[in-house]
Amino acid sequence: MINSIRGFNDILPPETYIWQHIEKEAREIFETYGFSEIRVPLVERTGLFSRSIGETTDIVEKEMYTFLDKGGESITLRPEGTAPVVRAYIEHKLYASDPVAKLYYLGPMFRYERPQKGRFRQFYQIGAEAFGIDDPMIDAETLEMLVSLFQRLKLEGVTLNINSLGCKECRPLYKEKLINFLKDKKPSLCQDCQRRFEINPLRALDCKSKTCIELTSLAPSLLDSICEGCKTHFEKVKEHLSLYKIDFHLNPRMVRGLDYYVRTTFEITAEGLGSQNAVAAGGRYDGLVKDIGGPDVPGFGFAIGMERLVMLVKGQRQEAEGMGQGLVFMAMLGEKAEKAAIPLMKTLRSNGIRLERDYGSKSIRSQMRRADKLGAKIVLILGDDELASHSITVKDMESGEQEKVPFEKVEEKIRALLTERQKVMSKQ
RNA sequence: GUGGGCGUAGCUCAGCGGUUAGAGCAUCGGACUGUGGCUCCGAGGGUCGGGGGUUCAAAUCCCCUCGUCCACCCCA
Protein backbone atom coordinates (compact mmCIF):
# COMPACT_ATOMS: atom_id res chain seq x y z
CA MET A 1 0.00 0.00 0.00
CA ILE A 2 1.20 3.48 -0.79
CA ASN A 3 0.72 5.78 2.15
CA SER A 4 1.18 9.50 2.59
CA ILE A 5 4.53 11.02 3.45
CA ARG A 6 5.33 11.62 7.10
CA GLY A 7 3.90 14.90 8.31
CA PHE A 8 1.72 15.32 5.21
CA ASN A 9 -1.86 14.67 6.17
CA ASP A 10 -5.19 14.16 4.49
CA ILE A 11 -8.07 16.22 5.79
CA LEU A 12 -11.30 14.28 5.42
CA PRO A 13 -14.96 15.08 5.72
CA PRO A 14 -16.57 15.95 8.04
CA GLU A 15 -13.51 17.78 9.32
CA THR A 16 -13.24 19.68 6.04
CA TYR A 17 -16.48 21.42 7.00
CA ILE A 18 -14.76 22.87 10.06
CA TRP A 19 -11.97 24.11 7.83
CA GLN A 20 -14.46 25.72 5.46
CA HIS A 21 -16.27 27.30 8.37
CA ILE A 22 -13.09 28.85 9.76
CA GLU A 23 -11.93 30.01 6.35
CA LYS A 24 -15.27 31.65 5.66
CA GLU A 25 -15.33 33.50 8.98
CA ALA A 26 -11.73 34.64 8.54
CA ARG A 27 -12.35 35.97 5.04
CA GLU A 28 -15.48 37.80 6.14
CA ILE A 29 -13.85 39.44 9.12
CA PHE A 30 -10.63 40.36 7.35
CA GLU A 31 -12.59 41.92 4.51
CA THR A 32 -14.55 44.06 6.95
CA TYR A 33 -11.26 45.44 8.26
CA GLY A 34 -10.13 46.40 4.79
CA PHE A 35 -7.91 43.45 3.96
CA SER A 36 -7.95 41.80 0.54
CA GLU A 37 -6.82 38.34 -0.41
CA ILE A 38 -3.48 37.80 -2.10
CA ARG A 39 -2.38 34.46 -3.55
CA VAL A 40 1.29 33.79 -3.82
CA PRO A 41 3.22 30.70 -4.99
CA LEU A 42 4.12 27.79 -2.75
CA VAL A 43 7.67 27.82 -4.07
CA GLU A 44 10.14 30.67 -4.04
CA ARG A 45 13.83 31.22 -4.59
CA THR A 46 15.71 29.97 -1.56
CA GLY A 47 17.41 33.32 -0.99
CA LEU A 48 14.10 35.02 -0.22
CA PHE A 49 13.72 33.01 2.96
CA SER A 50 17.31 32.95 4.11
CA ARG A 51 17.44 36.73 3.78
CA SER A 52 14.14 37.50 5.49
CA ILE A 53 13.79 34.86 8.18
CA GLY A 54 17.49 34.94 9.07
CA GLU A 55 20.43 32.76 8.08
CA THR A 56 20.96 31.38 11.56
CA THR A 57 17.39 30.55 12.46
CA ASP A 58 16.33 26.94 12.78
CA ILE A 59 13.84 27.37 10.00
CA VAL A 60 16.53 28.28 7.51
CA GLU A 61 19.28 26.11 8.90
CA LYS A 62 17.46 22.81 9.09
CA GLU A 63 13.79 22.99 8.36
CA MET A 64 13.39 24.09 4.76
CA TYR A 65 12.38 21.87 1.88
CA THR A 66 15.05 23.07 -0.50
CA PHE A 67 16.05 21.45 -3.77
CA LEU A 68 17.46 22.24 -7.16
CA ASP A 69 15.05 22.53 -10.05
CA LYS A 70 15.94 21.22 -13.48
CA GLY A 71 17.64 24.47 -14.33
CA GLY A 72 19.95 24.06 -11.36
CA GLU A 73 18.40 26.84 -9.31
CA SER A 74 17.87 26.43 -5.58
CA ILE A 75 14.17 26.72 -4.77
CA THR A 76 12.30 26.24 -1.50
CA LEU A 77 8.79 25.27 -0.45
CA ARG A 78 7.63 28.27 1.57
CA PRO A 79 8.10 27.74 5.32
CA GLU A 80 6.00 30.82 6.12
CA GLY A 81 3.85 33.36 4.36
CA THR A 82 5.23 36.79 5.14
CA ALA A 83 8.31 36.62 2.94
CA PRO A 84 6.44 35.66 -0.25
CA VAL A 85 3.82 38.35 0.37
CA VAL A 86 6.55 40.94 0.90
CA ARG A 87 8.23 39.76 -2.27
CA ALA A 88 4.98 40.13 -4.23
CA TYR A 89 4.36 43.53 -2.65
CA ILE A 90 7.72 44.74 -3.90
CA GLU A 91 7.64 42.98 -7.25
CA HIS A 92 4.31 44.53 -8.20
CA LYS A 93 5.21 47.90 -6.65
CA LEU A 94 2.00 47.97 -4.66
CA TYR A 95 3.43 50.88 -2.66
CA ALA A 96 3.33 53.02 -5.80
CA SER A 97 -0.42 53.19 -6.14
CA ASP A 98 -1.30 53.31 -2.45
CA PRO A 99 0.88 53.96 0.57
CA VAL A 100 -1.13 51.39 2.48
CA ALA A 101 -1.69 47.75 1.51
CA LYS A 102 -3.63 45.32 3.67
CA LEU A 103 -3.43 41.74 2.47
CA TYR A 104 -4.42 38.34 3.75
CA TYR A 105 -3.62 34.84 2.55
CA LEU A 106 -4.30 31.26 3.41
CA GLY A 107 -2.64 28.07 2.37
CA PRO A 108 -0.05 25.42 3.13
CA MET A 109 3.46 25.97 4.48
CA PHE A 110 6.24 23.41 4.70
CA ARG A 111 8.85 22.74 7.34
CA TYR A 112 10.99 19.66 7.74
CA GLU A 113 10.45 18.98 11.44
CA ARG A 114 9.54 15.95 13.51
CA PRO A 115 5.76 15.89 13.64
CA GLN A 116 4.03 16.10 16.99
CA LYS A 117 0.77 17.37 18.39
CA GLY A 118 -0.14 20.49 16.46
CA ARG A 119 2.90 20.29 14.23
CA PHE A 120 3.16 18.88 10.74
CA ARG A 121 5.49 19.10 7.81
CA GLN A 122 2.76 20.49 5.61
CA PHE A 123 0.63 22.79 7.71
CA TYR A 124 -1.81 25.55 6.91
CA GLN A 125 -1.75 29.15 7.93
CA ILE A 126 -4.14 32.04 7.61
CA GLY A 127 -2.18 35.25 7.73
CA ALA A 128 -2.60 38.98 7.28
CA GLU A 129 -0.09 41.72 6.56
CA ALA A 130 -0.54 45.49 6.77
CA PHE A 131 2.07 47.51 4.89
CA GLY A 132 2.84 51.19 5.06
CA ILE A 133 1.54 52.11 8.50
CA ASP A 134 3.91 53.22 11.27
CA ASP A 135 1.12 54.12 13.62
CA PRO A 136 0.72 51.74 16.56
CA MET A 137 -3.01 51.95 15.98
CA ILE A 138 -2.64 49.39 13.21
CA ASP A 139 -0.88 47.02 15.62
CA ALA A 140 -3.79 47.27 18.02
CA GLU A 141 -6.46 47.16 15.36
CA THR A 142 -5.00 44.11 13.65
CA LEU A 143 -4.83 42.33 16.99
CA GLU A 144 -8.42 43.29 17.60
CA MET A 145 -9.37 41.80 14.24
CA LEU A 146 -7.68 38.55 15.18
CA VAL A 147 -9.28 38.47 18.60
CA SER A 148 -12.70 39.11 17.14
CA LEU A 149 -12.22 36.21 14.72
CA PHE A 150 -11.47 33.96 17.68
CA GLN A 151 -14.49 35.32 19.49
CA ARG A 152 -16.66 34.66 16.48
CA LEU A 153 -15.34 31.10 16.52
CA LYS A 154 -16.29 30.93 20.21
CA LEU A 155 -12.82 30.00 21.41
CA GLU A 156 -12.29 29.75 25.13
CA GLY A 157 -9.14 29.67 27.20
CA VAL A 158 -7.06 31.80 24.85
CA THR A 159 -4.52 34.37 26.03
CA LEU A 160 -2.99 37.22 24.12
CA ASN A 161 0.65 37.72 25.11
CA ILE A 162 2.38 40.87 23.95
CA ASN A 163 5.86 42.26 24.17
CA SER A 164 8.14 44.74 22.47
CA LEU A 165 11.46 43.57 21.12
CA GLY A 166 12.80 47.06 20.50
CA CYS A 167 14.17 48.12 17.15
CA LYS A 168 17.36 47.74 15.14
CA GLU A 169 18.86 50.58 17.19
CA CYS A 170 18.08 49.62 20.75
CA ARG A 171 17.90 45.82 20.65
CA PRO A 172 21.64 45.33 19.96
CA LEU A 173 22.39 47.51 23.00
CA TYR A 174 20.14 45.35 25.15
CA LYS A 175 21.70 42.23 23.72
CA GLU A 176 25.10 43.48 24.88
CA LYS A 177 23.73 44.15 28.35
CA LEU A 178 22.25 40.68 28.52
CA ILE A 179 25.41 39.00 27.30
CA ASN A 180 27.41 40.82 29.96
CA PHE A 181 24.94 39.71 32.57
CA LEU A 182 24.95 36.07 31.46
CA LYS A 183 28.65 35.73 30.72
CA ASP A 184 29.79 34.46 34.12
CA LYS A 185 26.63 32.37 34.54
CA LYS A 186 27.07 30.57 31.26
CA PRO A 187 28.54 27.35 32.71
CA SER A 188 25.46 26.96 34.95
CA LEU A 189 22.95 27.42 32.15
CA CYS A 190 21.31 24.39 30.57
CA GLN A 191 22.84 22.83 27.49
CA ASP A 192 20.35 24.50 25.20
CA CYS A 193 20.92 27.93 26.73
CA GLN A 194 24.67 27.60 26.41
CA ARG A 195 24.08 27.11 22.73
CA ARG A 196 21.54 29.95 22.70
CA PHE A 197 24.11 32.19 24.33
CA GLU A 198 26.10 32.03 21.12
CA ILE A 199 23.27 32.25 18.61
CA ASN A 200 20.43 34.24 20.20
CA PRO A 201 20.94 35.05 23.89
CA LEU A 202 17.46 36.57 24.18
CA ARG A 203 16.10 33.05 23.91
CA ALA A 204 17.53 32.23 27.33
CA LEU A 205 14.84 34.51 28.74
CA ASP A 206 12.02 32.14 27.92
CA CYS A 207 13.84 28.90 28.71
CA LYS A 208 11.74 26.31 30.51
CA SER A 209 14.55 24.97 32.71
CA LYS A 210 14.22 25.85 36.39
CA THR A 211 17.82 26.78 36.88
CA CYS A 212 17.79 29.04 33.84
CA ILE A 213 14.65 30.76 35.05
CA GLU A 214 16.38 31.45 38.37
CA LEU A 215 19.61 32.54 36.78
CA THR A 216 17.88 34.96 34.44
CA SER A 217 15.40 36.28 36.99
CA LEU A 218 17.64 39.25 37.77
CA ALA A 219 18.60 39.88 34.18
CA PRO A 220 18.12 43.40 32.86
CA SER A 221 14.64 43.87 31.48
CA LEU A 222 14.17 44.26 27.77
CA LEU A 223 11.23 46.58 28.17
CA ASP A 224 13.24 48.93 30.41
CA SER A 225 16.04 49.00 27.90
CA ILE A 226 14.27 49.87 24.68
CA CYS A 227 14.58 53.36 23.24
CA GLU A 228 12.11 56.19 23.70
CA GLY A 229 10.58 55.71 20.26
CA CYS A 230 9.94 52.04 20.92
CA LYS A 231 8.55 52.79 24.36
CA THR A 232 6.11 55.39 23.04
CA HIS A 233 5.04 53.01 20.31
CA PHE A 234 4.42 50.20 22.74
CA GLU A 235 2.51 52.40 25.16
CA LYS A 236 0.17 53.44 22.40
CA VAL A 237 -0.38 49.82 21.35
CA LYS A 238 -1.38 48.95 24.90
CA GLU A 239 -3.56 52.03 25.19
CA HIS A 240 -5.45 51.18 22.04
CA LEU A 241 -5.86 47.55 23.02
CA SER A 242 -7.53 48.84 26.15
CA LEU A 243 -9.75 51.15 24.12
CA TYR A 244 -10.81 48.09 22.14
CA LYS A 245 -11.42 46.37 25.48
CA ILE A 246 -9.01 43.59 24.69
CA ASP A 247 -7.43 41.68 27.54
CA PHE A 248 -3.76 41.02 27.13
CA HIS A 249 -0.91 39.65 29.14
CA LEU A 250 2.32 41.59 29.08
CA ASN A 251 5.07 39.03 28.76
CA PRO A 252 8.46 40.78 28.70
CA ARG A 253 10.25 37.45 28.26
CA MET A 254 8.45 36.38 25.14
CA VAL A 255 10.93 36.21 22.28
CA ARG A 256 10.06 35.48 18.69
CA GLY A 257 12.33 33.40 16.54
CA LEU A 258 12.21 35.13 13.21
CA ASP A 259 14.89 37.77 12.74
CA TYR A 260 12.67 40.34 11.09
CA TYR A 261 10.46 41.16 14.07
CA VAL A 262 10.87 44.56 15.73
CA ARG A 263 8.86 46.43 18.34
CA THR A 264 5.44 44.86 18.90
CA THR A 265 5.34 41.08 18.95
CA PHE A 266 2.60 38.82 20.20
CA GLU A 267 1.44 35.30 20.55
CA ILE A 268 -2.00 33.90 21.25
CA THR A 269 -1.79 30.74 23.29
CA ALA A 270 -4.60 28.35 24.06
CA GLU A 271 -5.30 25.55 26.48
CA GLY A 272 -5.56 22.03 25.20
CA LEU A 273 -3.14 22.30 22.30
CA GLY A 274 -0.38 20.27 23.87
CA SER A 275 3.13 21.54 23.99
CA GLN A 276 2.82 23.65 20.85
CA ASN A 277 0.30 25.98 22.40
CA ALA A 278 0.48 29.05 20.14
CA VAL A 279 -2.49 29.25 17.82
CA ALA A 280 -1.44 32.55 16.28
CA ALA A 281 1.56 34.84 16.44
CA GLY A 282 3.10 37.77 14.71
CA GLY A 283 4.39 41.26 15.08
CA ARG A 284 5.87 44.30 13.46
CA TYR A 285 8.53 43.98 10.79
CA ASP A 286 9.65 47.48 9.85
CA GLY A 287 12.75 47.14 7.73
CA LEU A 288 11.90 43.81 6.16
CA VAL A 289 10.55 45.30 2.93
CA LYS A 290 13.71 47.33 2.58
CA ASP A 291 15.94 44.35 3.35
CA ILE A 292 14.37 42.42 0.50
CA GLY A 293 14.97 45.23 -1.92
CA GLY A 294 11.90 47.43 -1.65
CA PRO A 295 11.37 50.89 -0.23
CA ASP A 296 11.56 51.47 3.50
CA VAL A 297 7.97 50.56 4.24
CA PRO A 298 6.87 49.37 7.68
CA GLY A 299 4.74 46.29 8.20
CA PHE A 300 2.67 44.46 10.76
CA GLY A 301 1.26 40.98 10.41
CA PHE A 302 0.37 37.65 11.91
CA ALA A 303 -0.22 34.04 11.05
CA ILE A 304 -2.74 31.60 12.47
CA GLY A 305 -1.90 27.90 12.73
CA MET A 306 -4.88 26.36 11.00
CA GLU A 307 -4.58 22.81 12.39
CA ARG A 308 -4.25 24.19 15.90
CA LEU A 309 -7.27 26.40 15.40
CA VAL A 310 -9.25 23.44 14.06
CA MET A 311 -8.33 21.50 17.21
CA LEU A 312 -9.73 24.30 19.34
CA VAL A 313 -12.92 24.67 17.35
CA LYS A 314 -13.42 20.92 17.56
CA GLY A 315 -12.77 21.09 21.28
CA GLN A 316 -15.52 23.66 21.68
CA ARG A 317 -17.75 21.14 19.93
CA GLN A 318 -19.05 23.47 17.30
CA GLU A 319 -18.70 20.96 14.54
CA ALA A 320 -20.29 22.83 11.66
CA GLU A 321 -23.17 20.65 10.75
CA GLY A 322 -21.91 20.39 7.18
CA MET A 323 -22.74 16.86 6.14
CA GLY A 324 -26.49 16.80 6.71
CA GLN A 325 -27.09 20.54 6.43
CA GLY A 326 -30.20 21.10 4.35
CA LEU A 327 -29.90 17.66 2.84
CA VAL A 328 -32.82 16.12 0.97
CA PHE A 329 -32.88 12.40 0.23
CA MET A 330 -34.75 10.90 -2.73
CA ALA A 331 -36.12 7.42 -2.09
CA MET A 332 -37.44 5.61 -5.14
CA LEU A 333 -39.30 2.34 -5.38
CA GLY A 334 -39.08 0.45 -8.61
CA GLU A 335 -37.62 1.16 -11.99
CA LYS A 336 -40.51 3.34 -13.11
CA ALA A 337 -40.07 5.62 -10.11
CA GLU A 338 -36.32 5.78 -10.61
CA LYS A 339 -36.88 7.08 -14.12
CA ALA A 340 -39.73 9.41 -13.23
CA ALA A 341 -37.67 11.04 -10.48
CA ILE A 342 -34.89 12.14 -12.78
CA PRO A 343 -36.37 15.43 -14.03
CA LEU A 344 -37.35 16.37 -10.49
CA MET A 345 -33.91 15.60 -9.05
CA LYS A 346 -32.32 17.58 -11.83
CA THR A 347 -34.54 20.59 -11.17
CA LEU A 348 -34.06 20.54 -7.42
CA ARG A 349 -30.29 20.29 -7.70
CA SER A 350 -30.01 23.00 -10.30
CA ASN A 351 -32.02 25.22 -7.98
CA GLY A 352 -29.42 24.70 -5.27
CA ILE A 353 -31.04 22.07 -3.11
CA ARG A 354 -28.66 19.44 -1.75
CA LEU A 355 -30.07 16.14 -2.85
CA GLU A 356 -28.70 12.66 -2.33
CA ARG A 357 -30.15 9.31 -3.38
CA ASP A 358 -29.33 5.65 -3.29
CA TYR A 359 -28.21 3.49 -6.17
CA GLY A 360 -28.97 -0.11 -7.01
CA SER A 361 -32.71 -0.32 -6.30
CA LYS A 362 -32.52 -0.98 -2.59
CA SER A 363 -35.53 -1.61 -0.36
CA ILE A 364 -37.36 1.39 1.05
CA ARG A 365 -36.10 0.37 4.45
CA SER A 366 -32.52 0.37 3.32
CA GLN A 367 -32.98 3.74 1.63
CA MET A 368 -34.53 5.24 4.75
CA ARG A 369 -31.64 3.99 6.83
CA ARG A 370 -29.20 5.60 4.52
CA ALA A 371 -31.12 8.88 4.55
CA ASP A 372 -31.00 8.84 8.33
CA LYS A 373 -27.32 8.04 8.42
CA LEU A 374 -26.52 10.93 6.11
CA GLY A 375 -28.49 13.24 8.37
CA ALA A 376 -31.04 14.12 5.71
CA LYS A 377 -33.63 16.63 6.90
CA ILE A 378 -36.23 15.62 4.35
CA VAL A 379 -36.92 12.41 2.47
CA LEU A 380 -38.88 12.36 -0.76
CA ILE A 381 -40.58 9.07 -1.47
CA LEU A 382 -41.66 8.12 -4.95
CA GLY A 383 -43.40 4.77 -5.52
CA ASP A 384 -46.38 3.37 -7.37
CA ASP A 385 -48.95 5.19 -5.21
CA GLU A 386 -47.35 8.55 -5.83
CA LEU A 387 -46.85 7.88 -9.52
CA ALA A 388 -50.55 7.13 -9.87
CA SER A 389 -51.50 10.46 -8.31
CA HIS A 390 -48.66 12.45 -9.85
CA SER A 391 -47.35 13.34 -6.41
CA ILE A 392 -44.47 12.79 -4.01
CA THR A 393 -44.47 11.91 -0.34
CA VAL A 394 -42.45 14.51 1.56
CA LYS A 395 -41.28 13.36 4.96
CA ASP A 396 -39.77 15.59 7.65
CA MET A 397 -37.20 13.35 9.31
CA GLU A 398 -37.16 15.33 12.51
CA SER A 399 -40.88 15.22 13.30
CA GLY A 400 -41.64 12.09 11.31
CA GLU A 401 -44.59 13.84 9.69
CA GLN A 402 -45.21 13.27 6.02
CA GLU A 403 -47.63 14.34 3.38
CA LYS A 404 -48.30 13.77 -0.29
CA VAL A 405 -47.51 16.80 -2.38
CA PRO A 406 -48.17 17.30 -6.10
CA PHE A 407 -45.03 17.23 -8.26
CA GLU A 408 -45.06 20.92 -9.02
CA LYS A 409 -45.40 21.88 -5.33
CA VAL A 410 -42.52 19.73 -4.08
CA GLU A 411 -39.80 22.35 -4.19
CA GLU A 412 -42.00 24.90 -2.43
CA LYS A 413 -42.74 22.37 0.33
CA ILE A 414 -39.06 21.50 0.74
CA ARG A 415 -38.07 25.14 1.06
CA ALA A 416 -40.77 25.75 3.62
CA LEU A 417 -39.56 22.85 5.75
CA LEU A 418 -35.90 23.81 5.47
CA THR A 419 -36.40 27.46 6.42
CA GLU A 420 -38.64 26.43 9.29
CA ARG A 421 -35.81 24.29 10.58
CA GLN A 422 -33.28 27.06 10.17
CA LYS A 423 -35.44 29.40 12.21
CA VAL A 424 -35.57 26.87 14.99
CA MET A 425 -31.81 26.42 14.84
CA SER A 426 -30.99 30.11 14.94
CA LYS A 427 -33.20 30.58 17.97
CA GLN A 428 -31.08 28.11 19.93
C1' G B 1 18.76 15.59 15.12
C1' U B 2 17.60 13.43 20.46
C1' G B 3 14.38 10.71 24.02
C1' G B 4 10.05 7.77 25.34
C1' G B 5 5.20 5.19 24.31
C1' C B 6 2.42 2.34 20.85
C1' G B 7 1.65 -0.96 16.17
C1' U B 8 -3.93 -7.29 16.37
C1' A B 9 -10.77 -6.25 11.74
C1' G B 10 -12.69 0.29 8.93
C1' C B 11 -12.31 2.47 14.42
C1' U B 12 -11.29 1.61 19.89
C1' C B 13 -9.04 -2.31 22.07
C1' A B 14 -8.75 -7.61 24.59
C1' G B 15 -5.68 -11.92 23.94
C1' C B 16 0.94 -12.00 26.13
C1' G B 17 4.03 -19.67 24.43
C1' G B 18 -0.65 -24.33 23.23
C1' U B 19 -7.12 -26.08 18.86
C1' U B 20 -9.76 -22.63 13.52
C1' A B 21 -7.19 -14.97 16.87
C1' G B 22 -11.83 -12.30 19.82
C1' A B 23 -15.24 -8.14 21.73
C1' G B 24 -17.66 -3.43 21.26
C1' C B 25 -18.66 0.15 17.65
C1' A B 26 -19.01 0.69 12.29
C1' U B 27 -20.59 -1.73 7.42
C1' C B 28 -24.21 -4.92 4.81
C1' G B 29 -28.67 -7.90 5.16
C1' G B 30 -33.05 -9.83 7.78
C1' A B 31 -37.06 -9.66 11.66
C1' C B 32 -40.68 -5.08 9.63
C1' U B 33 -42.40 -7.79 1.45
C1' G B 34 -43.92 1.20 1.26
C1' U B 35 -40.88 4.10 5.94
C1' G B 36 -35.15 5.96 9.48
C1' G B 37 -33.50 6.32 14.81
C1' C B 38 -34.59 1.63 19.44
C1' U B 39 -34.28 -3.75 19.96
C1' C B 40 -33.08 -8.70 18.33
C1' C B 41 -30.81 -12.17 14.68
C1' G B 42 -27.23 -13.08 10.92
C1' A B 43 -23.18 -12.05 7.40
C1' G B 44 -18.74 -10.05 5.41
C1' G B 45 -14.13 -8.20 6.92
C1' G B 46 -7.33 -10.03 9.61
C1' U B 47 -0.13 -11.73 5.48
C1' C B 48 -1.61 -10.00 14.46
C1' G B 49 3.31 -3.43 10.73
C1' G B 50 7.59 -6.06 7.94
C1' G B 51 12.01 -9.34 8.12
C1' G B 52 14.96 -12.75 10.74
C1' G B 53 15.78 -15.92 15.08
C1' U B 54 14.50 -19.32 19.50
C1' U B 55 10.87 -23.46 20.03
C1' C B 56 7.52 -29.60 18.83
C1' A B 57 4.51 -24.98 18.72
C1' A B 58 5.10 -17.53 18.25
C1' A B 59 0.08 -12.32 17.87
C1' U B 60 2.67 -13.80 22.50
C1' C B 61 9.90 -14.55 23.76
C1' C B 62 14.69 -12.27 21.35
C1' C B 63 17.13 -9.18 17.46
C1' C B 64 16.69 -5.86 13.36
C1' U B 65 13.66 -2.68 10.58
C1' C B 66 9.57 0.43 9.21
C1' G B 67 5.47 3.29 10.70
C1' U B 68 2.93 6.27 14.18
C1' C B 69 2.09 9.22 18.55
C1' C B 70 4.04 12.32 22.42
C1' A B 71 8.04 15.24 24.24
C1' C B 72 12.89 18.07 23.52
C1' C B 73 15.01 21.63 20.00
C1' C B 74 12.23 25.14 17.36
C1' C B 75 7.76 27.11 15.86
C1' A B 76 1.85 28.57 13.70
Would you kindly provide a written description of the structure presented here, covering whatever features stand out?
With 428 residues, this protein is α+β, with helices and mostly antiparallel strands. It has two domains: 15-169 and 227-315, 2-Layer Sandwich (BirA Bifunctional Protein, domain 2), CATH 3.30.930.10; 324-427, Rossmann fold, CATH 3.40.50.800. It contains 17 helices and 16 strands. It has an eight-stranded mixed beta sheet with strand order 1-5-6-11-10-9-7-8, sandwiched between helices. It binds one RNA strand of 76 nucleotides through helix 3, strand 6, strand 10, strand 11 and helix 13.
Distance between the termini: 46 Å
Considering the protein shown, what is the CATH homologous superfamily of the largest domain?
Bira Bifunctional Protein, Domain 2
- CATH architectural group of the largest domain: 2-Layer Sandwich
Question: Looking at the structure, what is the overall shape?
Answer: elongated
Helix content: 40-55%
Residue-averaged pLDDT: 92
- The top level CATH class name of the largest domain: Alpha Beta
Beta strand count: 16
Number of helices: 17
**Rg, Å, rounded:** 28 Å
- Named CATH topology of the largest domain: BirA Bifunctional Protein, domain 2
**Unreliable parts:** none
How is the biggest beta sheet arranged?
Answer: 8 strands, mixed
Count of folded domains: 2
Beta-strand share of residues: 15-25%
Report strand order across the widest sheet.
1-5-6-11-10-9-7-8
Class based on secondary structure composition and strand pairing: alpha+beta
